């Protein structure tokens, strides 16, 4: 195992966290998960971490009146672990520019849309309402703007008439897209840990090549395909 360290921020269920834990356990990602930090004490992801003997912390955002104070407390907690990579995995807080700058080129996020389409919330419903035939999910480097920053990899999901006819089209779509997230997020983290993925002044680079458009799961080489 490499001695690289990951710190993972969550707010909820933590299914992406679980996919990352599994990838580390199987040595698909050769790194150590140093800590999992949640802004909510009831996040199920905390239990997932504890079941895997990963240190956990809860920093309730409701205890802070100012965003910058919460971010500072979060930063102090993270920095005791000196992570090589900070991973946002369903972390539902907007982070201040100073915080993001502190971890420049070392923060990844996953967002459930084909960015730059639909930053923010309710992405599945927005794609359905717009009559889109394709939707998906994106891993990107984090910059101070919400759900922005250089794109790394996307997975697409066709929106079919069967989705639209289902009882809960947005939920149906969300669960299918989540499965794709569990593939592309560990893959992007693996690239980063292996020093293949970097954020340069020009943007995200994979194997020294600028990603003018994000990689697409459906078209990448089999050698890069996850387990
Ligand atoms: C995912 O849809 C992710 O794209 C978004 O938040 C959700 C997290 O789900 N950022 P989980 O907590 O990993 O199950």
What would you say about this model in short?
Its EC number is 2.1.2.2. By secondary structure, the chain is an alpha/beta fold.
Any overview of this molecule?
There is one protein chain. With 227 residues, the chain is of the alpha/beta class. It has a single domain, classed as Formyl transferase, N-terminal domain (Rossmann fold). It is 33% helix and 22% strand. It contains 7 helices and 11 strands. It has helices spanning 15-25, 44-51, 67-79, 97-102, 123-129, 161-165, 169-193, and strands at 5-10, 32-38, 56-58, 85-88, 107-111, 134-141, 151-158, 197-199, 204-206, 209-210, 215-216. Strand 8 and strand 9 form a beta hairpin. Helix 1 runs parallel beside helix 7. The longest helix has 25 residues, at 169-193. The protein is globular, with a radius of gyration of 17 Å. It starts with a strand and ends in an 11-residue tail after the last strand. The model has no long low-confidence stretch (mean pLDDT 95). The structure holds 5-O-phosphono-beta-D-ribofuranosylamine (GRF). 5-O-phosphono-beta-D-ribofuranosylamine binds at residues 12-17, 89-90, 110-112, 137, 178, 181.
């Amino acid at each position: 195992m490499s001695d690289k360290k990951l710190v993972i921020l969550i707010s909820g269920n933590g299914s992406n966290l679980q996919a990352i834990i599994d990838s580390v356990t199987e040595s698909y990602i050769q790194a150590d998960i140093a800590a999992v930090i949640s802004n909510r004490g009831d996040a199920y992801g905390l239990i997932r971490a504890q079941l895997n003997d990963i240190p956990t912390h809860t920093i309730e955002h409701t205890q802070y009146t100012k965003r910058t104070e919460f971010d500072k407390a979060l930063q102090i907690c993270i920095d005791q672990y000196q992570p090589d990579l900070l991973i946002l995995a369903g972390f539902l807080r907007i982070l201040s520019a100073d915080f993001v700058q502190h971890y420049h080129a070392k923060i990844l996020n996953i967002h459930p849309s084909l960015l730059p389409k639909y930053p923010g919330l309710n992405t599945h419903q927005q794609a359905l309402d717009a009559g889109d035939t394709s939707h998906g999910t994106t891993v990107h480097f984090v910059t101070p703007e919400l759900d922005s920053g250089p794109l790394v990899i996307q997975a697409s999901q066709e929106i079919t008439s069967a989705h639209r006819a289902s009882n809960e089209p947005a939920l149906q779509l969300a669960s299918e897209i989540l499965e794709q997230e569990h593939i592309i997020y560990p893959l992007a983290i693996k690239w980063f840990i292996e020093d293949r993925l970097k954020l340069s002044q020009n943007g995200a680079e994979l194997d020294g090549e600028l990603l003018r458009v994000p990689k697409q799961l459906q078209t990448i080489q089999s050698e890069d395909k996850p387990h």
